[in-house]
Structure formats: structure tokens, C-alpha cells
Specification:
This protein has 819 residues and is of the alpha+beta class. Helix content is 59%, strand content 7%. It has 25 helices and 13 strands. α12 runs parallel beside α24, α12 packs antiparallel against α25 and α17 packs antiparallel against α24. About 8% of the residues have low confidence. Belongs to the V-ATPase 116 kDa subunit family.
Amino acid sequence: MEYIDRLPAMDLMRSEKMMLVQLIIPVESAHRAVSYLGELGLLQFRDLNNDKSPFQRTFVNQVKRCAEMSRKLRFIKDQLHKAGLTSSPSPAPQPDTDLEELEIQLEEHEHGLIEMNANSEKLQQTYNELLEFKMVLQKAGDFHLSTGSHVAAQETELAENIHVSDDYAETSSLLEQEMLPGPSNQTGVRFISGIICKSKVLRFERMLFRTTRGNMLFNQAPTDDQILDPATNELVEKIVFVVFFSGEQARVKILKICEAFGANCYPVPEDTIRRRQMTREVLSHLSDLETTLEAGLRHRDKALISIGFHLAKWMNMVRREKAVYDTLNMLNFDVTKKCLVGEGWCPIFAKTKIQEALQRATTDSNSQVGVIFHVMHSVESPPTYFKTNHLTNAYQEIVDAYGVAKYQEANPAVYTIITFPFLFAVMFGDWGHGICLLLGALFLIAREKKLGSQKLGSFMEMLFGGRYVLLLMSLFSIYCGLIYNEFFSVPFHIFGSSAYRCRDTTCSDSRTVGLVKYQDTYPFGVDPSWRGSRSELPFLNSLKMKMSILFGIAQMNLGIILSYFNARYFGNSLDIKYQFVPQMIFLNSLFGYLSLLIIIKWCSGSQADLYHVMIYMFLSPFEDLGENKLFWGQSVLQVILLLFAVIAVPWMLFPKPFILKRLHTERFQGRSYAALGTSDIYDDEEPDSAREPHLEEFNFSEVFVHQMIHAIEFVLGAVSNTASYLRLWALSLAHSELSTVFYEKVLLLAWGYDNLVIRLVGLAVFSFATAFILLMMETLSAFLHALRLHWVEFQNKFYSGDGYKFRPFSFAALNEDED
């Protein structure tokens, strides 16, 4: 044990040692100190104002200002996106901008953009109306020409032709002339012309017919192009219509229906000369408006491009400032209101770096008083912090998804880095499929920098985050595939010739009668001659089932051993004596013995029935084993191991609760007299974080029930967890059989036809099945099963997972979602 203690500590085995520190920061250097700590990213502040709402905190106004600036920056970013522009940083060095200056600049930019957008929208609406008017003039002119023979020459157009849009009435002098009262025949035929969406025209016509009782003539014609609707700013198909009617009442009704259906009405003169004059004037106005709109868009784009050069820097600056003030709101003012008091957790190795950052903040802010850095004592459990890199981070995330390790608890991620991809490969063993996964992993790793800077989708982001997990899974899959001798389910003579040959010279019945071994065993992996033979499935089933049990017992033993190191590290001798020892005895007396029998049977080539041995070890422990005997003294050993297993159960159950009760009684008797000399006055002199918690009442029945549940769970779990590892055999068999089916029943079947089209179709179906079923669904299935084996069968032997993560205040951890 002394040798183990002298070994250097593993970085990832236990979390970094933490300490609780108190900072007393002068007000004049508080902002700069917190900023420097944010750049360092090694201090997690505690919220000392939990009892206050966000609106009652000291720096709430500064947070509101930063939130308002974030809103303006998001508005500018949206405008850039709508304009189809990108915000790229300026190649020239940019001068630093003060927060107050930035606030003024953003106010000016927002006001300017809103004003430009308003002018552009107004001009665009006018342009759209003129465009509609041009369409109405063109189409309605055709209607007048076609209906001229049916209308008397002396009939004049209606003087009160209405233009619904008030804005447009101010844009054209001719339109104002049209709206003036003039000579008209009140008893003649009148008309109203306009434009309406194509989707509404049938209902519109039906409503007009019913309202006027059929006393109207409705003509319509589609527009040549889609028109931008002024109300919705979307391109829609529209219909130009002209309604001929008679009477004032009909006019009023038709105008109301037009308004209800959102139809835009425009005055069209009957006279051809006036209509042509009005068309020329409209075209002239359209040309002028196009020029004005293009100039406005160029001006707006130029302004947006100049802002885009600074946008990323400004957003980062505002994001940082808001984070600094949010952190300052977690600090308390002292009684003099001249200093801020904060508390937080930091790793011990970061103490010097934090002190240097605080000293730099004092110097840069020209403060007369330095920041006081004080290490405090705390009974609260510190946060858990593991230093990880690109490779180990994904495995740590897998473990943390189950639960964050308790402070200084043994970290399963150390072993998960190897055992997780290996157990995956046991279920996915095929070196052809493994190579496909390897190519995908290498592609993600090769484009790591490019993909890391992009915003990926949820699935792609998950795949990119686990690129190194995928790399190791693919390498282990290639290794296990070489052992299984499967390349897309096809065996190869990679490591020499087979150890078996046919019974006869023709090999005609080699797959039914069997093969004869004529030389040494195949040097590595499964002999390719097993493929397709009559004993292939029984042989591989037996091999993979026994192998799964061996792997399972080994991993569960590793979990129990780690519980010993946890108990030894935390100085809990009770867990070692009354939990670790009986658990090791129980598991290995039964299933460790089974693993031993498997290895002996493999080495000796015995035909013993291990099912019979294990069943009758419980039912008839003193019965003679007969032909199932594997070694001398096996019957006696079985009885001894069975007794050990029976003894281990009460050993786990009874001693620990009674010893805890005795220790509590002794501790209580020692404290009962000392408690008489204490007073509440002394308790108030210490801060809350340094006070000792009140001793909880010891409930023996609760402790005993908890221990009983734990013991029963382990005993039953030893059986169920061992059986759970048989999923390694089941999924490996399923993967192999699926590969065989796709190869033989799809690819070989198609290749048997002397037809290029059938062969290409077969190859396409085989590729599709391999990519989507074997490489995607089977990969996901094996991944989830490996995840379950680690979370349930392995980690429940030693891992409590009830800690909380170390989340330091760091600018690097800020992202755009926090704006």
C-alpha cells in the first residue's frame, strides 16, 4: 500500500483540488479585476445575493444598458442578414472604443437604419402602387376597346372613380385632375377598375354578382408578371378587373366590397389619348422611383458594410461587459460601501495566476488599495473540475451525462477511454465496416479547425464533438473484425492458410460432413474455414458468449476495485471491510469461478457442460461431477466458494449499521458536555460559509434499511449484470448475420445474373443497406448498448455521481446565445 501511495497522481483520475477564496476588491478596481478574472477563466463566483431579485441588485442599470446595446446589435445583424451582407472584421487595426462611445454610436446607427428603412418602405409602397396602376391602365384599356361598341358614345366615365390609397393621390397631378368633378351622365353606365389577388377573384366576383343582383359586367385579365403586394411585401399573382354598373347605390356597394377584399382601385380614363398620357406619366414616375430606390439601397448597404467591419468586435465587447456586470451583481458591498466582497471556488494550482491578475488590475486602475485574496475554510463540497483535452473531453461528457463525479471521487472516464470503444467493437466487429468509420473519423479530425469555427446542425455537432470517440471505436472495430475474420462478413486468409482441409479430394461435402485439422491452429483470430461450415454458428455462439461473460466479470471487478480506492482515499475503513471485501468474495465465488471454468475448458479442450456445473453447484453441491469435472479438487472448491458467497451476504448487511450506531453514540457522548459551553454569540462571529453544519440526527432504522437495499441490490445485480453482458454476444451475432444476409442475398445474388443493370441495382441496394443499416443504425445500437454497460453495470459499483461541475467565470465560455 505504501508503494501505491508513492505513485504519482493521475491528472484525470481525481478532480483538481479546490479551495474557497474570499476577495475584497476596492470599488475603483472592481470592474477591471473581474474582467481580468474572466480572461483567466479559473474562478467560479458564488452568488452572495441570492435573496435579491435581479432588479434589486447594485449594477442593474449597467446590465440594462448592455442588454439594450445587445438588442441594437442584433437589429443591425438582422439588417445585414436581410440585405444579404456578411459582417467581416476590418483588416486594418481598429481603435478601442469606450462603452459610452459605443452606446452613442449604436443609437445613431439604429436611428439612421430605421429612418432609411422607413423611407425605403414608403418609396417601395409607392413604386408598387404605380406598378399596379400601370398594369390596370394597360389591361383596362383593352377592356374599353372591346366594350366600346356596346356603350353609347355620349356616356362618360364616372367622375368619382375612387383611388383607395391616400398616399398615392399626392404623387400625380393627373390623378388629382381625374378626381375633380366634371360632366358626367348620372344615368349612364359607369365602371370601377382595380387589381386583386388571384386567390380572391372567384369569391370577389360571386359577391359582386349577388350584391348587384346580376346588374353588372365583370371583366378580368391576369397580370403579365407577379406583383409585390404593398401590404405584405410578397410576390403574388394578381388579376386586373373592370366592373361596369349603373347607379349610385351600386357604386357604393362595389367600393365597400373592394375594400373588404383588399382590392386596390385605380381611376382609368375612357379617352385613349388621356389614358396614354397618364401611362407615360406613370412610366416616368416609375423610372424616377427606381433610380431613387437603387440609390437608397446603395446608401444603406454602404452604411451596413461600414458597421459590419466593427460588428463582431462590438458584439464581443458588449457580451463581455454584460457578463462582467452580471458577475459584479453576485458580489456584496461591505459596510463602508467602498469595497466589494466576493467568494468563489478555484483550483489550488490557479492561486498564483489569480493573484497576479488581481495585482495587475490594481496597478492598471491606479488604485491605492490592493485586492485582498483570502483562503477560507468551508464544509460545503467543492465543485468538480477535470482538465481535459480534445481526446478526453468527449469521454468525460459521456460520464457526466450519467452524473458529475463527487469531489475527488475516482473518475470512470479514465477507463472509459479504452473500455467504451472496445466493448462497442466487440458488438460491431467487422474490419470493413471499421475502415468506413475510420475514414469518417479522419475526415472530421482533418477538418477540425474549419468545422470547429462553423455553426453546425444538432446531429453534425454531436458527431463532430465525438470525433475522437468515433476514431477509437473504428480502430477497435478493425481489431475485433480481424479477430472475427470478417470483412463485410467475408473471411480472408490474412495470417496464413487455414488449419483445416476437406475430408475428400473434391471438397464436395466439406460443409456438411466437416473438415479435418491437418496443421497448427490459425495464428490470429477465427479460422476462415469456419465460415459456411455446419458448425459455424455453434462455434461462434459459444466463443462470443463465453467471451462476453469474461469481459463482464473483468469490468465489474474493476468497478469494485475502484470502490476500494475511493474508500481508501476518503479514509472510510468501514466501506473497505464491510463493502469491498464481501462484494469481491461474493462476485468471484460465483461468477469469478465461472470465468475460471471457461478458461480451463478452453485450455484443456474439455467437453464439460458448464451450465450443469453451475446449476448443480447450488442444487446438489456434494454430488459427484462425473464427466463435467475439469480439475482435481473441484467439488471441494465449489462447496468452499458457495459457503463464502453465503457468508458474504450477511457480512454486507449487518455489521456496518451497528458499527455506525456505536460510533454515533460515542461521538454524541463526547459532544454533549462540550455543547454546554457554547453560545449563539460566538456563532455570529463567523461567516456563514465557515460555520460547521448542525449534526444531523442518526436514524438507525433508516441506515439499516439503506444498507439492506444496497446489499440486496448488489446480490441480485451480480446475476442480472452478468447476464446483461451477454448483449455483447447478441449484438455481435446480429451484426454478423445481417452483414451475411446483405452480402449473400443481395450482392452475390445480383452478381449471379449476366446483366449489367441487375448487377448495378444489386450493388446499389447493398451499398445503401451497408451505409444506412449497418453503418448508421447498427453503430447507434452498439453505441447505446455500450453506454448502458458503462452507466449501469460498471459505474454503479463505485460511482456516486452526485457532484456538480466547476463553472468558472470565463469570457471564452460565452457564446452568441447569451446576448
